[in-house]
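Design a sequence for this backbone.
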């Protein structure tokens, strides 16, 4: 019951009590479980999710929460597309802080190498903004004209995004924001949404919002293959555990389900069904670490923990 011990430091007071009861009911007989943070875009909630049964609301957010990541010291950072804001939620103090406001429709977030800043894609104005976490300074990183969605760094600190105009995954210069590479123009990628990186297979994975497919793409962006994934009419968020396992949010109307996909064996497993779920982030060990699928970096875990959890620390 390792999850039960870990979570005592993650959520406290009344929320903790509810969560402990839910975990006790949901994890009986399970040897291990995968933990996520998620956003309910329909009902405006932050969710703590343990596969395959437990779903607990830890906070109400406001209108249309979208992208979500785990930031430094497990701060939960999320975008409010409806309000044009980016917030952080401290699960230890249950404090919500506004990091940026006045945006149009922020949807995706990535923590940058070094854990000092985040990038946020705003599809309302076709820009990517950088937010410095120490002072919440907001600057423009990519000034258009293309609409960018999923954002991810790989373990070589290369930055990638889904480009809706080019129907491609593009590589961006992490200093200037310029597009410096893209997937072949003769291989269009249909309605891209989520994007992640998996170090075990050394590849990018993107969900197609309407194509019922996951695209596997080499990090030099030259090779594209399609994984048929007809689990739901719409595929949204995607994350990797860095060990060749993908976790995908499939949406059917107001119902959403998390699916696990093992790349090397093509094994598919149905996990939690969560109404309104749009995006997820894996809950890692350590204060600020680099998931092998979401690419943020800092110290904070031992080599033993790194090997045990599949999370890489640079």
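Sequence:
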């Amino acid at each position: 019951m390792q999850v039960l011990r870990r979570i005592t430091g993650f959520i406290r007071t009344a929320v903790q009590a509810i969560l402990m009861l839910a975990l006790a009911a949901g994890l009986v007989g399970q040897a291990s479980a995968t933990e996520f943070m998620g956003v309910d875009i329909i009902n405006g909630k932050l969710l703590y999710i343990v596969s395959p049964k437990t779903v607990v609301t830890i906070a109400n957010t406001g209108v249309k929460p979208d992208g979500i990541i785990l930031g430094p010291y497990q701060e939960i950072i999320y975008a409010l597309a409806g309000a044009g804001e980016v917030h952080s939620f401290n699960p230890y103090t249950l404090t919500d802080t506004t990091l940026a406001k006045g945006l149009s429709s922020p949807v995706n977030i990535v923590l940058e190498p070094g854990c000092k800043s985040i990038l946020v894609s705003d599809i309302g104005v076709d820009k990517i903004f950088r937010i410095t976490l120490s002072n919440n300074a907001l600057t423009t990183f990519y000034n258009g004209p293309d609409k960018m969605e999923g954002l991810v760094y790989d373990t070589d600190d290369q930055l990638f995004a889904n480009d809706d105009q080019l129907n491609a995954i593009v590589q961006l210069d992490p200093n200037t924001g310029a597009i410096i590479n893209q997937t072949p123009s003769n291989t269009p990628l249909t309605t891209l949404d989520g994007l992640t990186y998996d170090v075990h297979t050394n590849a990018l994975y993107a969900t197609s919002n309407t194509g019922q497919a996951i695209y596997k793409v080499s990090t030099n962006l030259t090779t594209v293959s399609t994984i048929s994934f007809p689990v739901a009419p719409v595929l949204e968020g995607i994350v990797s555990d860095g060990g060749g396992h993908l976790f995908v949010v499939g949406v059917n109307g107001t119902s959403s389900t998390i699916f696990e996909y093992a790349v090397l064996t093509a094994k598919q497993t149905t996990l939690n069904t969560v109404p309104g779920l749009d995006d997820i982030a894996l809950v890692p060990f350590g204060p600020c670490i680099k998931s092998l699928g979401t690419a943020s970096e800092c110290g904070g875990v031992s080599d033993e923990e790194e090997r045990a959890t599949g999370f890489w620390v640079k």
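Confidence is low (pLDDT under 50) at residues 1-14, 17-31, 286-297, 299-314.
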